[in-house]
Automatic annotation (TrEMBL):
<comment type="similarity">
    <text>Belongs to the class I-like SAM-binding methyltransferase superfamily. RsmB/NOP family.</text>
</comment>
<dbReference type="InterPro" id="IPR001678">
    <property type="entry name" value="MeTrfase_RsmB-F_NOP2_dom"/>
</dbReference>
<dbReference type="InterPro" id="IPR049560">
    <property type="entry name" value="MeTrfase_RsmB-F_NOP2_cat"/>
</dbReference>
<keyword id="KW-0808">Transferase</keyword>
<dbReference type="GO" id="GO:0032259">
    <property type="term" value="P:methylation"/>
</dbReference>
<feature type="active site" description="Nucleophile">
    <location>
        <position position="438"/>
    </location>
</feature>
<dbReference type="InterPro" id="IPR035926">
    <property type="entry name" value="NusB-like_sf"/>
</dbReference>
<dbReference type="Pfam" id="PF01189">
    <property type="entry name" value="Methyltr_RsmB-F"/>
</dbReference>
<dbReference type="InterPro" id="IPR029063">
    <property type="entry name" value="SAM-dependent_MTases_sf"/>
</dbReference>
<feature type="binding site">
    <location>
        <position position="367"/>
    </location>
    <ligand>
        <name>S-adenosyl-L-methionine</name>
    </ligand>
</feature>
<dbReference type="Pfam" id="PF01029">
    <property type="entry name" value="NusB"/>
</dbReference>
<dbReference type="InterPro" id="IPR006027">
    <property type="entry name" value="NusB_RsmB_TIM44"/>
</dbReference>
<protein>
    <submittedName>
        <fullName>rRNA small subunit methyltransferase B</fullName>
    </submittedName>
</protein>
<dbReference type="InterPro" id="IPR023267">
    <property type="entry name" value="RCMT"/>
</dbReference>
<keyword id="KW-0489">Methyltransferase</keyword>
<feature type="binding site">
    <location>
        <position position="385"/>
    </location>
    <ligand>
        <name>S-adenosyl-L-methionine</name>
    </ligand>
</feature>
<keyword id="KW-0694">RNA-binding</keyword>
Length: 508
């Protein structure tokens, strides 16, 4: 379902010049900010309406919140604190949807499946203001009731009023106790309790806990991990070597600081990265610090002899390709970036545009599964940043946890095995392959590597698993890694996405 009629760009809330009606926000006359909601009296404000439209687009037409919201804010000229409010409201309501639905069910005395979808979205927004943001209860209820009246109708507004008043009667801690008890009345299903309280599907909680344990971390860290998934991540920038440095970026941006691990990383404390001149000219990109570490580790691990041709097998949209090409350029090597989807290959071209021409041999559109057969032994370093469930980046993709299902693992697993198999053919003897996922799910990480090594052995390839801790510790001294050859990063430990890295060398 698309955004409700009349609420999209150019709707009745915009005047003939496309400006927000009534508020004269840009002039400051009578401005109402989302962060001072108690001062508002009528209807729904622009920030809440934007958040509502995002939830509708995500729930109704399978859109991605982080693709819908930024252009919507730009079109409606919502900026500054209002933009921050709309973002926190939409993303928070989506991340914590499981928790809020359980609260709403108790207050509405009916299952959420029996509530019309637009009304449920309004209730989720109200619940997040009451239980997840510091919006005064009176303002949260009255503004959200106004939103319901405007978007769904008077009858719905009454229902929303009654439910949100009930929600507002208890603080978050009481609700967490109640929904936890409802999920686990006998006290025998702690994962069910955790799943509802920390707002993750149970299968994901189980998979994340297994991955923690397999990587030498205590099972009870799962709670901290789920909480980290519920926090809004900071924007991390990558300073592309040869084009700029993290020190230069930090010196030019008062609202930034160096990253924790990667020498290329800069944390942006506030502001829109797209507006930064260095980002516009391609010297700097937006990239999670864990992603940076995986690309840096592939470039760091020693190879014997020739080190001239590097391959990024699954390159779109090009974040790691741009970092790899920058690193390749520094030592006279060249990158081939391959991507199966033409529109994503175009994004790779754009990401690589700022790099010296001799750093990039080609950006190709092609199926990575056959590159090994087409170009056996042609590359010195190969990155397989495999398509995956993205369970390691749930904090960045607020709706992803509700979209994914265990059934996704089968199709992705087949693709991941084929891509890694192809990479092991494409790398020369003595060269290295990095297998990377932004998922810690063991089926996508350890199991894929195990199967791909077995299949490679059947084809007569001799492949050694390298200790990824060496290059990672060279890059990030003191980084906390398990006592295993492969490396798993975690949001609650490292502050990065839960990136997985296995490094492999062709021995024969
Ligand atoms: C995890 S993303 C890569 C992210 C990228 N390395 C970056 O840092 O921006 C996986 C990519 O693999 C691509 N892909 C999926 N199947 C593929 C295939 N058979 N061959 C090559 N690329 C494929 C997807 O379209 C997607 O762009």
């Amino acid at each position: 379902m698309s955004a409700p009629a009349g609420r999209g760009p150019g709707s009745s809330r915009r005047d003939a010049r496309g400006r927000e009606r009534g508020a004269a926000r840009a002039d400051g006359r009578g401005a109402r900010t989302a962060s001072a909601p108690s001062q508002r009296r009528r209807g729904a404000d622009a920030a809440r309406t934007a958040a509502f439209d995002v939830l509708r687009a995500v729930g109704g037409s399978d859109s991605y919140a982080n693709l819908v919201l930024p252009p919507l804010l730009r079109e409606r000229r919502i900026d500054g604190r209002d933009a921050g409010f709309a973002t926190e409201l939409a993303y928070g309501a989506l991340r914590l949807q499981g928790r809020y639905d359980a609260v709403i069910e108790q207050c509405a005395a009916r299952p959420v499946a029996a509530i019309d979808a637009p009304v449920l979205d309004v209730l989720r927004l109200g619940a997040h203001q009451l239980l997840g943001m510091r919006v005064p209860p009176h303002a949260a209820v009255s503004e959200t009731v106004g939103l319901a009246r405007e978007q769904v109708g008077a009858g719905a507004a009454q229902f929303v009023n009654a439910v949100l008043r009930a929600v507002s009667k208890e603080p978050l801690e009481v609700w967490l106790e109640r929904i936890g008890d409802a999920a686990d009345p006998a006290g025998e299903e702690p994962l069910e309790r955790l799943a509802v309280v920390e707002s993750h599907p149970t299968w994901i909680v189980r998979a994340l806990r297994e991955a923690l344990v397999a990587h030498g971390r205590p099972a009870d860290e799962i709670e901290a991990l789920l909480r980290a998934d519920n926090d809004a991540p900071r924007v991390t920038l990558v300073a592309r070597p040869g084009l700029t440095s993290s020190a230069e970026v930090v010196a030019g941006l008062p609202e930034s600081r160096p990253g924790r691990w990667a020498p290329t990383a800069v944390v942006l404390e506030s502001g829109d990265p797209a507006s930064l001149p260095a980002v516009r000219r391609g010297a700097v990109g937006v990239q999670d610090e864990g992603s940076q570490l995986t690309a840096l580790a592939l470039a760091r691990v020693p190879v014997e002899g020739r080190d001239e041709r590097w391959l990024d097998l699954c390159a779109g949209p090009g974040g790691k390709a741009a970092l790899l090409a920058a690193l390749a350029s520094e030592r006279g090597a060249r990158l081939v970036a391959n991507e199966v989807q033409p529109h994503r290959a175009r994004l790779v071209e754009r990401a690589l545009a700022a790099l010296p021409a001799d750093a990039v041999e080609a950006v190709r559109v092609g199926d990575g599964r056959i590159v090994g057969e087409q170009e056996p032994g042609a590359y010195d370093r190969v990155l397989v940043d495999a398509p995956c469930t993205g369970l390691g980046a749930l904090r960045r993709r607020p709706e992803a946890r509700w979209r994914r299902s265990p059934a996704d693992l089968a199709g992705l697993g087949e693709l991941q095995r084929a891509l890694l198999g192809s990479a092991l053919e494409a790398v020369r003897v003595g060269g290295v392959v990095a297998y990377v996922t932004c998922s810690p799910h063991l089926v996508e990480t350890q199991l894929v590597v195990k199967d791909a090594l077995r299949a490679a052995a059947r084809r007569g390839l001799d492949v050694e698993v390298l200790d990824a801790r060496g290059p990672l510790r060279d890059i990030a001294p003191g980084i906390d890694l398990a006592d295993r050859d492969d490396a798993q990063l975690w949001p609650h430990v490292h502050g990065t996405d839960a990136m997985h890295l296995t490094l492999l060398r062709r021995q024969g």
